Request: fold
Amino acid sequence: MEALDPILERLLTVQRPKRPLPLSTRLMWTALAAIVYVLMTITPLWGIQRATPAGAAATIFYNPLVSTIFGSTFGTWAQLGIGPIVIAGIIMEILQFSDLLPFDLEDKRDRLRFSAFQKLLALILAAGEASATIAMGAFGPLSPVQAVAVVVQLLIATQIIILLDDMIAKGWGFGGSAINLIILLSITRSLFVDLFSWNMPTYPNVSPADNPAMQLPLGFIPALAVAVYNTIYGSGPGLLALVFRQVGTLALPDIVSLAATLALAYVVVYIEQMHVNIPAAYTQYWGFRINIPLRFMYVSVIPIIFTAYSLILAEQIIAGFAALAGGISPALAVLLTAMMPARILTPDYIVMHIVLYAALAAVFAWLWGQIGGIGPDEYAKSLVESGLHIPGFRQSEKIVAKLLRRPINTLIVLSGLIAGTLAAIGDIFGVWGSGIGLILLVEIGLGYYTQIMQEGLMEVYPGLKRVLSR
Reply:
């Protein structure tokens, strides 16, 4: 890897601030990062011929759920979103965990190399995805100059997102990463559309005259206003049409989905407040004991992102092979349908969709617990370094890790199961932003709220920070 040092050292980066910044300043920089990203989502790519995806790339790269999670907007500088960065991070974590990379993350220089190599990999993935998108004709026919221009623009856009992430991670911004910020913005935008869009809903091969649900605006608020007007004057679909609106497998914003969205959000917030307490004691203060709270939803964001992406990818691959084979069997058709997030109220879909999401989320949660630095060994190390130990046992990383292995591994798998189940139930009831999107929105929002409250309290009472850091 040392041979790559000249390249890695030339990658753009952001320097840390010379001193810790106050919360208000960091929030300002975070707001600036959000504005930059929003501007990217409305800045069109120069040289493209299509404003919407077409051809094979339309089904492979541009699933609406994946676009929402990765914060991508077709035909703009946010075309790739955070996809290259997230995938590069996952690849690096797996390779590092498998000892296939010669980085010692305890060494400061190796940590810098690891970070720089991850950025380089993200740019390589961005170039590959941009080239594949062009080759598959998603942007329409492009001249060589236009194709090169599109790739260059998307590389610059990816570099901007990398710098935004670097800026927030190094203390200029708030929240630890621009990734969460972009996911939050993307899902919020989806909810905003579900609430306020005046556009009329469209669905392939379905005429509005055949379905009253399509005769009301897409957004719930405009649809409610039109439905009230129609009820008063008897001129079209009224309030009853707004109770349950569906076209094919597409759930339009209605009263049922509104109630499901509020209910799921409440359940997620409630579960997020649950903790499992582990008794501990300070070694240097004899007799001083505390409870260390482990979140009941120990890990949930990453597993459900993996679950959604893997199911969508598998569905597209199987459907592609089935199309080449000339058709699919009824059993395979049911399985393919169960892979898709949709509001389908049939017993076979409900059971298979929940089982697929819950099982895959649990598997991915366990895998992430092994490679993501959140397992019992890493937790035990942080406890011992903080001067804590489990009462009745020696202050040893191995002993503490052994004691924590069962509760932490149980929480990891259980949190994956619960997150996958809730996401699937959300899809079935048609929650706004999808079940996965709503869970991500609530968890990221709660994380921001908790951090703002903690840091605000520490700024008001500086002595509290010194006490908590001991």
